[in-house]
Write a structure and sequence with these properties.
Order of helices and strands: EHEEEHEHHEEEEEE
Strand content: 15-25%
Helix content: 10-25%
Structural class: alpha+beta
Strand order of the largest sheet: 1-11-5
Number of strands: 11
Amino acid sequence: TDLTGSKKCWITQNLGADRQALSATDDSEASAGWYWQFNRKQGYKHDGTTRTPNSNWITSIYEYIDWLPANDPCALLLGSGWRLPAGTEWETADDTGGWDNYNETFTSILKLNASGLLLSSNGSLVNRGSYGLYWSISQYGPDNGRNLGVGSGYSGMGVSNKASGRSVRCLRD
């Protein structure tokens, strides 16, 4: 698709998901996929009760770097050529798609849904079915990364604590 101004191949489900979301507010584990902390290789799934793996959760990430290619879950799980989108690519996709809410992101070619997030404080799952946040490779200072957020009344770029768990979509040039 050319949502970013040039032809790119995007996956149409969240990385780690068993299937494409069934609706904008699909709150199932099968559609949510895994969640990643910024610039970390480890992904986490959450069944609504338990985070897996349920290892020690990093509650603070403070580093002046974008997501490193060696840690990119898209390349690690899908292979060479796959990567996380840059912040500007998410911005352009949001603008090109004319998205104003999760119904519009879901009916787009990308099928973006409200996959929720894992809290930076303890890795607990919140807001699955209410809103979704999708990491970009771009940092916004030492403790925040840039992400696309989608909800019932909005779609747009924002920033999130790097220690929070966010969904991932991958693309290939």
